[in-house]
Amino acid sequence: MKLGIIGCGAIGTDVAMATDEMEEIDEIYLYDVVEEKAMELASKLKKAKFMHVEEFIPKVDIVFEAASQKAVREYAEKVLEQGKNLIIMTIGTLFDDEFREHLIDVAKRHGAKIYLPSGAVAGIDGIKAASMAGIDEVTLVTTKSPESLGRHLSRRTILFEGNAREAVKQFPKNINVAACLSLAGIGFDRTKVKIVADPVVKFNSHKVLAHGKFGRLRAEVENLPNPNNPKSSYLASLSAIALIKKIVSPLQIGV
Ligand SMILES: NC(=O)c1ccc[n+]([C@@H]2O[C@H](COP(=O)([O-])OP(=O)(O)OC[C@H]3O[C@@H](n4cnc5c(N)ncnc54)[C@H](O)[C@@H]3O)[C@@H](O)[C@H]2O)c1
User: Fold this and answer.
1) What is the C-alpha separation between 194 and 167, in angstroms, rounded?
2) Residues 223-253: pLDDT tens digits?
3) CA distance linking residue 207 with residue 185, whole number of Å
4) Which residues are known to be catalytic?
5) How many CA atoms lie within 13 A of 128 on its CB side?
6) CB under 8 Å to 127, separation ≥6 — which residues?
7) Which residue from 139, 105, 157, 159 is spatially nearest to 209, judged by alpha carbons?
8) CB within 10 Å: which end of the chain, N or C, has fewer?
9) For residue 40, what pLDDT is reported?
10) Measured in angstroms, how far is the CA atom of residue 89 from the centroid of ligand 1?
């Protein structure tokens, strides 16, 4: 399988390094808006070379985006209309209902698939399965240090309580996790979000609570930062690598 990667920052680098070691991946094409970054990363890998996105789309089977909302808007349609599969890391871009539905329509018409890794949150598998019978309520409680939420506070403070649609408007940096959870479950308007700033915490934690016909779900992850970028949770990179492993594997584990 041939893979194209857009964005060679923390996540793109982790994915490029991991897929370079996967026997199912034959060739990797790397692009970053900072071209030197992609070239330097390519020079360290066995199967990778630098190439512009438009040039590598026809050559690859799947494109992995780990860049920005701008990159998703610029390239997603181009990838899908050539019938190529696309993994989107910047899931927050799909908060725009019209844009998301358009991409789904393009993918459908050209026989392509859009994959969204579970990213920095846990419990997406349970939410997806539970939603088959209808979920009554989904709540995301995100707890971060005040500094990582751009505040200076000495006490635990609830900064936001409302639905996911409103949360992503007020806290765009939390948008990927809330977007993934909303799309897996009951949508942006019904998914509840609570954002807590706590000076005591050392980890970014995401707790998912849900109940419905299946019973109750409670999943919590305490994320360590990516060793290469303290602003990114390491689990996000690992979820992308696990998804690619799933795509190339004959054995499919989890929904
Ligand atoms: N789904 C999740 O849970 C989750 C978790 C963490 C990060 N993310 C998202 O994944 C993306 C990558 O995260 P990261 O931690 O690797 O970020 P990063 O800042 O370390 O790397 C992003 C890279 O993309 C490049 N880039 C930016 N715009 C580009 C464009 N238009 N075309 C090509 N390259 C471009 C940058 O130069 C940079 O090298 C971000 O958008 C982030 O919001 C998602």
Assistant:
1) 8
2) 998 888 777 899 999 999 999 999 999 999 9
3) 15
4) 206
5) 12
6) 135, 138, 181, 184, 185, 208, 210, 217
7) 139
8) C
9) 98
10) 8
Identity of residue 88: I
Q: How far, in Å, from the CA of 65 to the mean position of ligand 1? A: 8
Type of residue found at 134:
G
Which tokens is 88 given?
């989107």
Task: Judge if pTM exceeds 0.70.
Answer: yes
In the chain, the domains with their CATH numbers are 2-116+234-248 (3.40.50.720), 124-223 (3.30.360.10)
SS3 at position 41: helix
**The token pair that represents 157 in the structure block:** 């403070």
Nearest atom (ligand 1) to Cα of 180: 1
Decide whether any atom of ligand 1 lies within 6 Å of the 67 Cβ: yes
Phi first, then psi, for residue 132 (nearest 5°) are -65, -25
